[in-house]
Amino acid sequence: MMARRGLPIWLASTARRFARDRKGVGAIEFAIIFPVLIMLYLGAFEITIGLSVSKRTTRAAGSIADIITQQQSVTKSSLTDIAKAAPAIFAPYDSSGLSLKVTAIQIDGGANPKVLWSWAPSGAAPYAKNSTVSDVPTDMKKANSFLIRAEVSTPYTLLVFAPNFMPAETRTITISRSYFYRQRQNDDIPCGDC
Prior knowledge:
By secondary structure, the chain is α+β, with helices and mostly antiparallel strands.
């Protein structure tokens, strides 16, 4: 009988001692905060790599458009050679899913942009000739002018965000950039076989 009455007193005194004891507070706080710190670190890593891939996508689109606008004329073969610059710009990142489209845009006297020719590494023209181009920036829609548009897109798969719990399709983001450049010489840049 006596042992039963002593149990509640012992539990109460143990609970009071536990409430006053501060020796393990640091360990408990660390155990709570550690997963948050790891997530912040990995998130910063992912953002850094993603921004680097985005910057290289921008640089590839701008460089390809710039090189093309320096030419007096182009062919499918010369466009293929120019497009080889993109994987070099993406190094050391994977460029296997890289997509590239080049479009020559003729703007008529009414400031209506139309496709003069287009090219993609696959060989097929990505846009029909004389189709309307809707995404030309307003400040570049000058009557009787010519533009080259380079479009580059690449898939970026998150490296460390739940790699074993989510399929790669869910962790993949497509980064796309378009650049418009004016020709440097002549009135346009013809493509003899596009």
